[in-house]
């Protein structure tokens, strides 16, 4: 098995996505995420993951200049990540297709294999 990172991106912030959502709609959205992640855990594929807050800091170049994250300038905000186990790319992509962020046209999932580094 190989390790993969799934990065969840959206051109809309969570605040924009759920500005007009009722408490019931918010609860239903959270249930979709919980069910998907519980399913992955039951299959032994889930390593871990968390949602990310929209703010952050970015360090650049040799000067190591610190700026507020370019998140609001970017076309897509990284909303969270999961680490999963999959036998190959095809399985990792298949797992990703169940991600609730893909339930809207603005959501994307970036699938990246984690490179093993010898100590």
Describe this structure in words.
- By secondary structure, this protein is of the alpha+beta class.
- It has a single domain, classed as 2-Layer Sandwich (Alpha-Beta Plaits).
- 27% of the residues lie in helices and 34% in strands.
- It contains three helices and six strands, in the order E-H-H-E-E-E-E-H-E.
- It has a four-stranded antiparallel beta sheet.
- A hairpin with a 4-residue loop joins strand 3 (57-60) and strand 4 (65-68).
- The longest helix has 20 residues, at 23-42.
- The chain starts with a strand and ends in a 6-residue tail after the last strand.
Provide a concise account of the structure shown.
By secondary structure, this protein is α+β, with helices and mostly antiparallel strands.
Question: Sheet bearing the most strands, described?
Answer: 4 strands, antiparallel
Question: Structural class per helix/strand content?
Answer: alpha+beta
Shape: flat
Strand order of the largest sheet: 2-5-1-6
Number of domains: 1
Oligomer: single chain
What integer is the average pLDDT?
87
Strand content: 25-35%
Q: Give helix % range.
A: 25-40%
Computed over alpha carbons, the radius of gyration is 16 Å
Distance between the termini: 19 Å
CATH hierarchy class name: Alpha Beta
Query: What is the H/E order?
Result: EHHEEEEHE
Corresponding CATH superfamily: Dimeric alpha+beta barrel
Uncertain segments of ≥5 residues (pLDDT<50)?
Answer: none
CATH topology: Alpha-Beta Plaits
Q: What CATH architecture would you give? A: 2-Layer Sandwich
Total of DSSP H or I helical runs spanning 4+ residues: 3
Number of strands: 6
